[in-house]
Write a structure and sequence with these properties.
Helix 1 (about 25-40) runs parallel beside helix 2 and helix 9 (about 215-230) packs antiparallel against helix 10. This protein has one domain (about 5-230): TIM Barrel. The chain is α/β, with parallel strands linked by helices. It contains 12 helices and 9 strands. The mean pLDDT is about 95. It has a 7-stranded parallel sheet. Strands 2-3 form a two-stranded antiparallel ribbon. The termini are far apart. Strand 4 (about 80), helix 3 (about 85-100) and strand 5 (about 105-110) form a beta-alpha-beta unit. The protein is globular and about 45 Å long.
Length: about 300
């Protein structure tokens, strides 16, 4: 079946990568993927920032993508994290995602080496030319320092397999400006839970979410309401979820969401250095946020 860009929508968890004794816990990850689909998530992103991709080996990264594609089995789109600040590495990871059956890839900007707008354009254009797979740009200046300008996105939107953006800028002027510059087919996916309601009201199509790891049904209900234009219901759900959104970033992510996941029996509370597990004060805040939202084991 041909890929439809309209299938990238709704609540799309940026999946955690469960760990056990320093290794990827494949059984727990498989169970997480199955649960997400059962709970109504509209898509899946393995090996993004929340999946601790910077500390996964190439072998682990590829294996996690393979498991996600296999377990999803075509039921929802899999958008594999395949970005890098090395263009050749981004191409390699994108080729692997294509080979194992991912529906699209998520490709991040050039963190640390801080390319110019021309450098960003050439980087993404090179990936798109090398791999025939739909590409979502990942714009996250808070982590990557560099920001893909609207003008650069407009240039990139003219490349057939670059189909949209995961926008983690929290700038609610961006979706309207990008739609005007890139056209109405440009997929606008929020990368920031706290402003997802506003983003959707500004014409967004969905959210790649951290909170959806532990509240998939609530996040799916929220997105379904937004997509129906029922913003009163969405607002009620947003208010319920906001303490959880805040708690997921009380300390460097994904430590908070992994602790929350451990409370729900999803996986162990284990992250890889240089990240460390959530502190006791953070854990108290996370417990309170889950309780206030009615999220229970």
């Amino acid at each position: 079946m041909a890929f439809a860009r309209e299938s990238i929508k709704g609540s799309i968890p940026a999946l955690i990568t469960p760990m056990q004794d320093g290794k990827v816990d494949e059984r727990a990850f498989r169970s997480l993927v199955a649960w997400q689909i059962e709970q109504g998530s509209h898509g899946l992103v393995p090996c993004g920032t929340t999946g601790e991709s910077p500390t996964l080996s190439h072998e682990e990264h590829m294996r996690v993508v393979e498991i996600c594609v296999d377990e999803a089995n075509g039921r929802v789109p899999v958008i594999a994290g395949a970005g890098s600040n090395s263009t050749s590495e981004a191409i390699m990871l994108s080729r692997h995602a294509k080979k194992v059956g991912a529906d699209a890839v998520l490709s991040v900007t050039g963190y640390y080496n801080r390319p110019s707008q021309e450098g960003l354009y050439r980087h993404f254009a090179a990936v798109a030319e090398a791999v025939d797979i739909p590409i979502l740009l990942y714009n996250i200046p808070g982590r990557a320092i560099v920001d893909i300008s609207v003008e650069t996105m407009a240039r990139l939107s003219r490349i057939a397999n670059i189909i949209g953006v995961k926008d983690a800028t929290a700038n609610l002027m961006r979706p309207t400006r990008e739609r005007a510059a890139c056209g109405k087919n440009w997929r606008l996916i929020s990368g920031e839970d706290g402003t997802a309601l506003g983003y959707m009201a500004h014409g967004g199509h969905g959210c790649i979410s951290v909170t959806a790891n532990i509240a998939p049904r609530l996040c799916a209900d929220f997105q379904n309401a937004c997509m129906k234009g029922d913003f009163q219901t969405a607002l009620t759900l947003q208010d319920r979820l906001m303490p959880v959104h805040d708690a997921m970033f009380i300390e460097p992510s994904p430590a908070p969401v992994k602790f929350a996941a451990s409370l729900l029996g999803i996986c162990r509370d284990e992250v890889r250095l240089p990240l460390v597990p959530a502190t006791e004060p953070a854990r108290a805040t996370i417990r309170a946020a889950l309780a206030s939202a009615g999220i229970k084991p």
